Amino acid sequence: MMALESQTMAEHAAVAYGSSESQDAAVAATELFDGLSGVEPACVIFFCCVDYNREELGRALATLFGDIPVLGCTTAGEISPFGMRSGSIAGFALSRDHFVVETTLLPNLASFSERGAFDTIKQSLERLEDKALAPVGENSFALSLLDGLSVQEELVLSALNDALPGIPLVGGSAGDNLHFRDTHIYYDKQFFSNAAAIILVNTRRPFTVIHGHHLTPGEEKLVVTKADAAKRIVYEFNAEPAALEYCRIMGISLDELSTRNFAMHPLSVQVGDNTFVRSVQQVNDDLSLTFFCAIDTGIVLTKMKNGRLIEEFDQRMRRVVAEVGDPDIVIGYDCIHRRIEVEDTDSSEALEALYRRYKIVGFNTYGEHCDAMHVNHTFTGVAIGKYDDFPL
Question: Residue 240's closest CA among 255, 254, 229, 258?
């Protein structure tokens, strides 16, 4: 059994966080629970490897935390203030002294109703307003956890964004270690597939949303000339088989197509001066390509050039500190392709040092959420400052 990794703040802490690398689900749940014992939680959020026995893990968490709201998801890798992990569980607790929360589940995304989701979130928002610690509009944010194989993120996020005017939303799509078979959301003491969990958080603490990437656009373009938007599959670029055109523009061979090369050779949609990354998930037997995010016929994709990920992320986090002070926690959603990139470029230790410095807890995703956007290859999250009275 691995030693417990945990850290809590000082007396009257606002946040506690912990993790476990035990492969035994019951032991892992106990070690996470022990790591979060420094606060009276308003809620607990965790991120776990898909390989755990989920029935056993869910049962253990329900027994340990009782009536405390516990939410979570499976991942493509876990992040704690101790660094990047695989095959583990990591999580955090928000203290009831400093946060109030409202949670809800959107089940069965296959029959998702925008009107139903809008009404559900509005009701949750009304409950939050009834018990808020500070004015809701200026002092609240929303967190989302979505089944990463549901192919419904864009529809769900659009409905959520409409229901939460002025309240920022950040989140991530659950993963399964790049198997692309089995992603899950945990809510109300059980795991669900094809579902989304939403957490509304109100606090007096200063916070700020983080969202961005380190990539820059190149000159080469690919036009989607045949696609199945509902399945996020591109059959043709430039009227040629998608995989062959992708290989041509990236300068790689067909037999080199792999998760690693998809991570190292991203594409993007350009809207004005903004670039929204669209990463390839996998190549199919018919030479079509499945994407992580929305894709459709007629879209023009730009080849992206990798930049200086570590330096860009460090600069971004320095701006966060200038805005809200040293963070108590950064709830982070980091694309799995960024993790593959840092591993491929031997930058993992440098990134882990930043995770530790800025107290980042989160997971490697199949897509990142920022308001109504569902994108790839970004770090997206929310940083919460330590002090209620930090000058803004």
Answer: 254
